[in-house]
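can u do me a favor
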């Protein structure tokens, strides 16, 4: 049985928001199948350091790692060579060993091999001390004491945004 799991996380907002669910799934696996399973850390992938969004998501991943008591590994940079290797069906370390992504994965493997081997205590719980709080943004309706408008689902919001988008020739 595996002793450790590395959780890859794409450096996108929605992917980072799924970490509590992933940790819950690992906890279920641990309680039912593999009591010695331990999360080694979160591995941010497809990281573009030029993007402020990616940097914000990296910060969110680091905060989640701290909350769960696991490590946040160095990010794997986004690379076109990685996409080419994937479409060719060849590992990046063979396809383009000089690429930044290949070097990052090599560094991760070396770092993972150097770390001291520790076994998780039997029956240890992976859940954080306090679950992340979800707070609702205050709206003008809250302040005026009005009833809050009905919340719309994601598909409806997408359609509304398309309807509100300006015509290609129009200015906003």
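np, heres the sequence
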């Amino acid at each position: 049985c595996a002793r450790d799991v590395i959780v890859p996380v794409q450096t996108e907002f929605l992917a980072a928001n799924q970490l509590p669910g992933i940790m819950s799934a690992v906890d279920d696996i641990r309680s039912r199948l593999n009591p010695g399973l331990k999360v080694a850390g979160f591995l941010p992938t497809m990281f573009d350091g030029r993007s402020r969004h990616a940097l914000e998501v990296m910060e969110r991943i680091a905060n989640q790692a701290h909350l769960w008591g696991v490590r946040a590994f160095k990010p794997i940079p986004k690379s076109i060579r990685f996409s080419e290797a994937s479409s060719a069906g060849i590992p990046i370390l063979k396809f383009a060993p000089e690429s930044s992504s290949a070097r990052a994965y090599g560094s991760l493997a070396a770092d993972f091999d150097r770390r001291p081997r520790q076994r998780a205590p039997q029956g240890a719980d992976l859940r954080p001390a306090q679950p992340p709080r979800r707070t609702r943004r205050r709206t003008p309706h809250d302040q005026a004491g009005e009833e809050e408008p009905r919340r719309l689902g994601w598909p409806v919001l997408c359609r509304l945004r398309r309807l509100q988008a300006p015509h290609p020739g129009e200015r906003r």
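The chain is about 45% helix and 10% strand. hope that helps!!
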